[in-house]
Amino acid sequence: MRLQLGQTKAALDSYEKSLAGFQRLADADPKNAQAQSDLGVCYDKLGDVQLQLGQTKAALDFYEKALAVDQRLAEADPKNAQAQTDLFVSNFKLGFLYQTMHDYEKASVSYAKGREILLPWHEKGLLVGQFKNAVPQMDQRITVCQNAEKAIADIEFVFKQLAKQIPELLVLRVQALLKRGKPAEAVTTAERFARWAETLDEKLRNNERYNAACVYALCAAAIEKDRDKLVDQAIALLQKAQAGGYFKAEQIAHIEQDRDFDGIRTHPKFVAFLKELEKPTDEKK
Q: What is the pLDDT of residues 269-278, one digit of tens each?
């Protein structure tokens, strides 16, 4: 369960206070596996909290420290299941963090390292509980990351995939291109997304118009000089979806919370669009 902001900051304060104690015990007895493990767990928890706070660099630092501890423990006792699964978890968390940072190459490497750790145990049927399906889950994540990297490199790769995979890859491509400082390519992707949405059948079209509007909103938030134009394009897609009957109560509630629109949420045209959505049906008539 994701903590609320106040709870997250309280957790960060608690773990930071605990860290000094765990560090002192680990330094006092480097051969004490439990003390080392406790330190690694504390690093992991600090990384988790920093990630929830959006502090990816701080999270990366703590996850790397946890990985170093878990690596030493796993190498010291290769037959210890707890040490091996702890090392897997550290690699998984690094992979997940890199994935959120849209560094899919590094994410793939971390997931692959985690997979390699558990593979011998998986092949012998020794993994249970939350780790029972960890190897096939890593295979799936590695494939997602590899496809994401291919999609970023070549937009035509995206449109060669199954239709149900295209929207997610287009969103990932826009997010990554903006992160990598390639706004023009991100906008081109949004334009392709919008055109592709219009080729779909009626059952899917409005949903993908909405998703295309989301990526225009992401572009608008990141590209100040073209913001008004990009907002207009996002609103135009939302209006098409609205005319197609897309915005029922559930969809209105969703757009009011959708973080993809946070960068334009106070823009007058977006504010006006939301107000129009919220009008009672009889008043719209």
A: 999 999 999 8
Q: What is the pTM of this model?
A: 0.81
pLDDT one-digit tens code per residue, 43-75: 999 999 999 999 999 999 999 999 999 999 999
**So where are the chain's domains?**
161-285
Reference 86, options 132, 125, 126, 38; nearest CA is 38
Alpha helices in the chain (DSSP H): 5-28, 33-52, 56-76, 81-100, 104-123, 134-153, 155-158, 166-179, 183-198, 202-222, 227-243, 249-257, 268-278, 281-284
Tokens of 24: 């002192």
CA 189/CA 260 separation, integer angstroms: 16
- pLDDT tens by residue, 94-106: 999 999 999 999 9
Structure tokens at 186: 């991100």
Specify the residue for token string 């630092």.
Answer: 61
